[in-house]
Write a structure and sequence with these properties.
Two copies of one chain form a homodimer. Helix content of chain A is 30%, strand content 39%. Chain A is α+β, with helices and mostly antiparallel strands. Chains A, B: Its EC number is 6.3.5.3.
Chain lengths: 83, 83
């Protein structure tokens, strides 16, 4: 069993209105030191062991999890199920 | 300038219908090895240097970013702006 942690973010240059809203809200709540915010998605998958796990993850991201036109993704693979 | 990466996840035991939908979709798309999925949020904040940055981040999460009743969060602090 492996735990795959996937971070999906908007590509640089793609407008992020949700991030902008977070930044402005934090500024108004008394955190003027926040100069920028970007919001993305985070996923944890539990996978049975597989011969080519990197290839599998890339296919999952391309087919379902990320929008390759506007999003980038990174992932880490850890042994064992998440605690 | 510091970059803070925040991962917000549902607490263990809290039902995650979005994660369940991701898992079932991946299974149907030809990835039967996916045995579980949890979906969360990921944020990158750009912060000016501040005396007590840990305390600031905890306050931001408590006041706006996370729902402490059902969500946990983790964060990392990196020097410099995100590339």
């Amino acid at each position: 069993m492996k735990t795959v942690k996937i971070f999906i973010t908007l590509k640089h240059g793609v407008l992020d209105p949700q991030g902008k809203a977070v930044q402005e809200s934090l500024n108004k709540l008394g955190f003027p030191e926040v100069k920028g915010a970007r919001v993305g998605k985070y996923m944890e998958l539990q996978l049975d062991d597989h011969a080519d796990i990197d290839q599998q993850i890339k296919e999952m991201c391309a087919k379902l999890l990320a929008n390759p036109v506007i999003e980038d993704y990174q992932y880490t693979i850890e042994e064992g199920a998440v605690q």
